[in-house]
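Notes from hallway chat w/ T.B., transcribed later so I don't forget. T.B. wanted the structure written out for a chain they're using in a teaching module, and asked if we could keep both sequence and structure tokens in one place. Agreed to drop them here.
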Amino acid sequence: MKIIYSFGKVGFEADYWGREIAAASTSEYTFMPFNHAGYEKSSSFTRAQLLDNLYFQNNAGLARLYADIEVKIRTEQADVLMVDTYNPYHPDYLRKLGIYKVLRINDGPMAAYDRDFAYLHAFDHVLYHSPAYSKDMQIDEKLRYCGAKRIDFWPLGSFDALCDRSMTEDDIKLRSRDIDIAFVGALAPNKMPVIAAVKRAFGPRMKLYGLTNLKRNVYFNMKFGFPGWVKSLPFEQYVPLYQRTKIGINVHNRGDYTVGGYRLFDLPANGVMQISDGGPYLESFFEVGKEVELYRNTDELIDKIKYYLAHEAERKQIALNGYKRVNRDYRMAHLLQKSGALIKEGFYDKH
């Protein structure tokens, strides 16, 4: 089965996405990376209505993209078009493509109405990254409610480029780590109270990096009592930072309902002991208390950080267990092959 994996990334991310998607191919599944970035700015179609506006205007960038994907489908004799990261393919255009169409959603409920639900009718198959959605229902129920034809749970995972696969279990246990706590991620307003409280509690012992700007940094410090200035961290520096870190905290935009992002896997892939929110949904990914630790509020998070910094053997064991689980179940090559099996089943059911 030949699967075109259409994604939108630039720079360092584009390189390793393309490389690792192609490398996941087997005799049964051929994954062909296709980068849809660069045809039109992603900010121009982050919402479905914006994409509809571009399509109505006969946007030149979209026209070039659509022409190129048709050539790719034809020359490769592809069976499947799988779309990830900011879908640029208008539903009315997809209707014309005689190919099995798969949408990978991974932005969570804060962007679902903008980027996911409006497109469900145009795809034969939807792969979702987390069971969490809202207090009313889980995402599988919501997707069916919105009319998705076929759905499957397919979690995110760990790219080889964002860890060191040569590390052994002994390396994880014996590595000297001089950073007590780290958080790397977007400095979103919903995350700020938790991040600020931890930073104030531990001061320079916590390293904080994120996707931010001057305005958001000023707001963060004025609002939360000057916990610290947040700097950006290039992707190339993630692995060196994580390999020096004892404990990584995971904070999601809507807490339990948005658990399941890439950081959930990047931390244990680098031997970092992880403390995460996620409530009952965290167990969908890791065994709580053995492979990851759970917190339910900020005070509990701070208390658990203190506990595990003082109990090194327990911290190292959870870090090692998480590392082993990632290597067993969440390497991107393994996950892509699993997606191939899910897609193949849906493909043949339809045909």
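Follow-up for T.B.: The first strand starts at residue 2 and ends at 7. Might be a good example for the class.
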